[in-house]
Specification:
elongated, 2 domains, two-stranded antiparallel sheet, Alpha-Beta Plaits, 9% strand, 15 helices, alpha+beta, 467 residues
């Protein structure tokens, strides 16, 4: 077994050697002559290898059920289809004359399109996150050979139709054999997708050395090299031929990795660090949200709790002081709640509290805030402190709570005593405002309950529901 150091050196040679060959070809070798039939056979051979790797990927998927490998199977079968049509549309070939176009520029354009499309398809399928359908078993159960066969037929049918309707295809070559902007864009996107994938596989290999993952890393680097060479070369040049060799070598190397995983003990083991970081960040965000809910909200009713209410009131005071504004604090204590608990039990009492909370929430505006600060004690912060607004909200709450409330077939008759204080007329601290509203609420309790009262103050005249 080779050591990690030797494996890494060998992998580096696979990536660096083509660059050396490229430099040699550019500086020492003249343009190769057009060998049309050689290209046809060479690409058909490459397509056969791609189909073989796709089939091997599917066999490996059936063995270990790693979703990513199924995408790899789709990728290479697509390469096989598109590369086959790349061979069939080779200009002036004597073997596949039925696919030759009357217009040579159109012929070369479609010919190049299928070549670029094969690399783009491979990049796209490898780019698909393996967690995309992680929890969707309804779709994953269809990951089988029949779907691959269906995709193979569909891609072949679309390609066949496109060949005989070239007007529907974008132009990939100008008359002087230079790439069009669309062709350049396709290659650039391919490079971006492959580059991101190569980075992910590199990080995965750094976490845990895995031969199969390393083979994919090498293959992706070779595809990037071949894409760049296709971009800077023209058809039939020596660099263009080298690009073909690199592309073929890329999926031979990747196919070797899949074969190694299928036959050996060391299996394809991809660890998406970037994906895991994103996953853990999302999980942390969810946990923080849950913790915030536990800390700031009442578990029974969902309203904010005493802690959250105190902090929110401090913010209300700061804002009102800054803007020279005001707000109202309503202290709500339920009437006859203990009687309901004694008659029907605490379970009914809890359900009643939930019902009351919902009624209070629905009685106030969205910009106001309701809290449960004790057993049957609630507080409401009203952004508007005008008497008419306070009266309107108070009467809405009393109207909803005075009517009988039916819980699981049990009729519960309660009411509410509401005391109200206003900032800054009744105090400029949380404690002062609560104390004043509490005093007003107890006045209502003594006067017969089920009413509301604004705290007495020299700056604000006394008011009550009946006054």
């Amino acid at each position: 077994m080779l050591s990690n150091k030797k494996i890494n050196v060998t992998a580096s040679l696979f990536i660096v050697l083509p660059l050396i060959v490229y430099y040699y070809l550019v500086n020492n070798v003249s343009e190769m002559s057009m060998n049309i039939d050689l290209h046809f056979y060479y690409v058909m051979f490459s397509s056969a290898i791609a189909f073989l790797v796709g089939f091997g990927a599917y066999k490996e998927y059936k063995k270990n059920r790693v979703t990513k490998i199924y995408y790899i199977a789709i990728a290479f079968l697509g390469v096989g289809v598109f590369y086959t049509f790349h061979a069939l549309t080779t200009p002036d070939t004597a073997i596949a004359q039925i696919f030759n176009f009357p217009d040579r520029v159109d012929n070369i354009s479609v010919f190049v399109l299928f070549g670029d499309l094969s690399r783009f398809w491979l990049a796209l399928m490898l780019f698909v996150p393996d967690t995309l359908l992680e929890h969707n078993d309804r779709i994953k159960k269809h990951f089988n050979g029949y779907v691959l066969l269906f995709l193979l037929i569909v891609l072949s049918g679309i390609s066949y139709f496109a060949v005989f309707n070239p007007e529907m295809l974008p132009a990939f070559k100008h008359a002087d054999l230079r790439d069009t902007y669309f062709a350049i864009l396709t290659k650039v996107i391919t490079l971006i997708f492959i580059g991101i994938n190569a980075l992910k596989y590199y990080y995965s290999y750094k976490v845990k050395s895995n031969i199969t993952i390393l083979s994919f890393l090498i293959g992706l680097c070779l595809i990037m090299e071949s894409t760049i060479m296709f971009m800077i070369s023209t058809p039939w040049s020596s660099v263009w031929w080298l690009a073909h060799n690199l592309f073929l070598l890329s999926y031979i190397v990747m196919g070797f990795g899949l074969l190694y995983s299928y036959t050996g003990k060391e299996k394809y083991e991809y660890f998406d660090i970037l994906g895991q970081i994103k996953k853990y960040a999302k999980l942390l965000e969810e946990k923080n949200s849950q913790l915030n809910t536990l800390v700031n909200y009442d578990a029974l009713t969902g309203l904010s709790n005493r802690r959250h209410f105190m902090a929110a009131t401090e913010k209300y005071i700061e804002r009102a002081e800054k803007n020279h504004g005001s707000f109202a604090l309503m202290f709500i204590d339920l009437d006859h709640f203990k009687t309901v608990n004694d008659q029907h039990g605490h379970q009914i009492g809890d359900e009643l509290l939930k019902n009351v909370s919902e009624k209070i929430r629905n009685s106030i505006h969205s910009k106001d805030m309701a809290s449960r600060i004790g057993g049957d004690e609630f507080v409401v912060l009203l952004n508007e402190a005008q008497k008419e607004h306070i009266k309107h909200i108070s009467e809405r709450i009393l109207d909803k709570l005075t009517k009988p409330i039916v819980i699981n077939g049990n009729e519960c008759n309660i009411g509410a005593s509401i005391g109200i204080s206003v900032y800054p007329a009744h105090g400029d601290t949380v404690d002062e405002l609560i104390s004043k509203s509490d005093e007003a609420m107890y006045c209502i309790k003594k006067d017969g309950r089920n009413n509301y009262k604004i705290a007495e103050n020299e700056k604000l005249s006394t008011s009550s529901g009946g006054q």
